[in-house]
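Bug: token stream looks shifted between consecutive jobs. Job 1:
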Amino acid sequence: MTVLMAFMVLAVAAEFSLRSLFGLGSPSLAVADPDVGYYFAANQSLRRFGNTIAYNEYHMRSEPLKANPSYRILMVGDSVTNGGALTDQKDTIPEILEQKLNERMGSEGEVLSASAGNWGLENECQYLRKFGTFNASLIILQVDRNDLYEAKAGSDVVGTEDFPAVNPPAAISEFLGRYVFHRVFQEAPKESGAGVYQSRVLANIDCVRGIASLAKEKNVTLMVLFVPGREEIGGGRNPEENRLFLLLEENNVSYVDLLDTKYGLQKNEFRDQWHPSVQGNQRIAQALYDTLLASKNV
């Protein structure tokens, strides 16, 4: 009986600690969508690992849309734009850019974040087709090297450990299921053949072309933000990336290529291979800010 009581006390203490210190037990919930694939559930707000996470009525990691903003920029991307649970809302690229622009202009505009982890370019294109451009004057499409090779992320991920659709029964169960067993027994992704990769590149380039056409149709300026991975810093473009930039130039789409050393992005400004740290996000937001001011796009 004493052992059982001790176990129960430890379990309660662990549950309380995991919830209060790390926010486990209340993850960001995902919703399946037949067109987009998935996005995070609307109107949810939580804290994870000490970070604030909030999604508005349009599944964006942003505050609810302002009624009459002085400007509106729509940023579309994957986990680099979103930031994930390891990045506080105020430290995401869109939020930092918004703060810089509002301070400069002395007004209340907004930079919206239509984003989700593992989204590919087709997911992003379908989101824009489904929800529109929200009367934005500028769309910033964030692209990284992986985006050129990835297939569309399907709705089948919803309900998995990484994209739960409902809250777990307990913080302890989430800790064990998502951060212990799932990581230990996670299967390595299967490699695809060169032909599959090339077909994906063509499809993803076509997605960018479709987004450019949609922006033109809606009379919205499009800008592409290319974010390299950590190990790509200091290197050059590969043939697939050259194909992307050729498309942009042919369609008069402006871009910020962070492979360019003038932006100063460093390897130590990443928290892992693909995701910039808070310092990296600040560097990227500054690059966008300087480009926008120079081009007078806001």
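Job 2, same session, no restart:
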Amino acid sequence: MRLAGSGNAADDSEDCDTGRLGYDHTFVVILALDTTTRAGSVAVARDDEVLSLVPGDAARTHGERLPGEIDRALIDAGLSPRDLDLLVVASGPGAFTGLRIGLAAIQGLAMVIGAPVIGVSALDAVAETLWASFHPPGPSRLVVWMDAQRGEVFEGRYVASPADGTWVAECEPSVAPPDAALAPLGDDPSRPTLFSGDGADRYRGAIQAWSASARLVETPRALAPALARIGRRGAARGLAGPPHALQPLYVRRPDAELERLRRASSA
């Protein structure tokens, strides 16, 4: 098991460092960006205090809105880009186009201001947000489903860990049709299962058919504040790194790669 947000750092190595990683981790100015959902969000935080939050406009593409939303978040916080100590981005899973736009925006800003970056799983950010909203009584499990389209969901599974003050991931993120994702869970009335995410909203019927005791929790509207908190903790453990080391968390192979494999197998 791993703590939510403990993986998916900016580099494959856990000791990656840059010239600006010597800052005081107890007082860090952070910009966090999420483009994994249609709306997305941008937040600026000092330590764990959110200074500004800009929820995205789902009616417009991320390409149309960035970097305008980043500028607005900084203005609302009364800061300039040079005030930032750390950049955090949701590295996936999500739509490939949105992921690429978010990663490119953070990489470009990092190169301009020389700040370290860290990628965080959007699934972990959902779990982090829900823990901040309530502390589940007794043993419980959280399943985060993000809509992966094509009749599938991106899934993250977590168990409550009051000692750690967070949800602990049971396994690596995966992608599967809802029924296939539900099959290995097992329905244990003594261990309530909570579901959240836009995938859980979309496939509510499948969840309710699987277990009458399953509880659907409202999907968080903005993940950027949770990304900032997870990113700060990761940076304190030395997991932030240079912009070129950021890696997307696709979970499912990009369409272009699948098409190349299909052509190769049929040749």
